[in-house]
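Recall the central idea of this unit: under ordinary conditions, the amino acid sequence of a chain determines the structure it adopts. In this exercise we apply that idea directly, starting from the sequence alone.
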Amino acid sequence: MADKAKILIIDDDEDYLASTRALLEGEGYEVIEALTGRAGREVAHKNKPDLIVVDIMMESPVEGYSVVQALRFGAAGTDVGEIPIIMVSAVKDDPSSRFPMAEGMPMITPDAYFTKPLDIPKFLECVQSMLED
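Accordingly, the structure predicted from this sequence is:
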């Protein structure tokens, strides 16, 4: 039997973490989590997940972008830069209008973006697709 894909969720909302963990574990994935961007970066480097789901607004209103940048380019000699990243936010605004600094900056652009509450079928489809690539 193949190993379960490992997904890291980085979010400061414990209720969101619990519900998303239950959703993903119900689909057969292994889930690890972190409550802060800094902890998430450390967990990613230590555990090398197959996929990362990160919130935008945590310690700062744009913390998720800092996490993406740190993971993509932060530590020389690590392979976390190739991990696919899904960004989530409770903010309904288009990310490019709310966070214009992200426009055209691939180093902080996630592979996918979803708003909370999640559209569960689309989210799970995206997760599966990213893990198959």
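Residues 6-132 form a domain with the Rossmann fold fold (CATH 3.40.50.2300).
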